[in-house]
Write a structure and sequence with these properties.
Blueprint (H helix, E strand, L loop, with lengths): L1 H29 L7 E5 L2 H11 L3 E5 L14 H8 L3 E4 L8 H4 L8 E4 L16 H18 L4 H25 L7 E5 L5 H6 L3 E4 L11 H14 L3 E5 L4 H11 L2 E5 L7 H5 L4 H15 L5
Parallel strand pairs: 1-2, 1-3, 3-4, 5-6, 5-7, 7-8
Length: 300
């Protein structure tokens, strides 16, 4: 079955690349004016948000995953392969987070730059590396270097934007450290998948998550009962859930324990509203800090 799928993907790449070449040829013949900016394609919203911060209006930026899509189990299409083949820079997080990326990497055209965010991240069982600001810094530098390599004329612009983004990360990190240093509880109960392990480890929170590192994790009755028991025993007044996921499960925990539910934002499963509003990485992380401070009953 795996052989058949791999063979099919290879055929799809060959066909899609051929179609991409034909489309490009027709576009050159028919279109009087084209967008000459560097074309950058990202896997999902995390990479998209970072590329937008650094590339600004100097790049032609697009994202493979549509709004509300699940990054762990996305299925590439011929359009996906054509988009990647036409890009000067392709940015993704990791094969662990996005296993489907390995199937489309052969479609990257020769000379294009590929950035893997996790290549500069600290080792972790949690693939959501962007929840630790120390991982975001090398990621951002890699994006800036890739953009500058493909578009050296705008190197100064990219480096200036990178400096501003790194400063923003430093400010976020300092604010998280300050706010989460004085809380009544450090018990972070998350009714969702294990997306906040890196954040919890960085700020010395004790995280309990209902599922594993993917949205496809099993939400068994036994696991749910265990979480309800823990909430009752620990006396926590708030539990957290993901902005678009596990709402019914969180409501069950709230009903059984009396705890209130607060949303956290993974920055990977993004609503149509946030995509349309161009919500930034920093804005998502500020939302998370506001709700963590309330849920953990922090003083500041």
């Amino acid at each position: 079955m795996k052989f058949k799928k791999a063979f099919f993907i290879k055929l799809l790449i060959i066909a899609a690349v051929g179609v991409a070449g034909l489309i490009a040829l027709l576009a050159r013949r028919q279109a009087p004016a084209q967008d000459t900016r560097l074309k950058v394609v990202t896997s999902g919203y995390v990479a998209f948000a970072v590329a937008r911060e650094i590339g600004g209006d100097k790049i032609n930026l697009s994202m493979l995953l549509p709004a509300n899509a699940e990054p762990h189990s996305f299925e590439p299409t011929p359009g996906t392969i054509i988009a990647v083949h036409s890009a000067g820079v392709f940015i993704y997080v990791s094969p662990q987070l996005e296993p489907w990326v390995k199937d489309i990497l052969p479609s990257v055209r020769p000379g294009a730059a590929v950035v893997e965010a996790a290549s500069g991240a600290a080792p972790s069982k949690d693939p959501h590396i962007w929840m630790d600001f120390d991982n975001m810094r090398p990621f951002a530098r890699s994006v800036s270097a890739a953009l500058s390599g493909q578009d050296p004329a705008n190197r100064a612009f990219f480096e200036e934007r990178l400096a501003l983004f790194l400063k923003e990360l430093d400010e976020l990190d300092a604010e998280y450290s300050r706010v989460l240093s004085a809380c009544q509880t450090r018990e972070m109960v998350h009714i969702g998948h294990l997306a906040f392990g890196n954040l919890a480890a960085r700020y010395r929170l004790h995280l309990t998550a209902l599922a594993g590192t993917s949205h496809d994790g099993e939400h068994s009755v036994r696991k749910l009962a265990g979480v309800i028991k823990q909430v009752r025993q620990s006396g926590v007044k708030y539990v957290f859930t993901e902005e678009e996921i596990a709402q019914n499960l969180a409501a069950t925990v709230a009903r059984e324990t009396g705890a209130q539910v607060l949303p956290l934002y993974t920055v990977e499963h993004v609503s149509r509203q946030d995509v349309a509003a161009h919500t930034t990485y920093a804005q998502f992380m500020h939302r998370n800090l506001t709700n963590l401070a309330r849920g953990l009953q922090c003083k500041a």
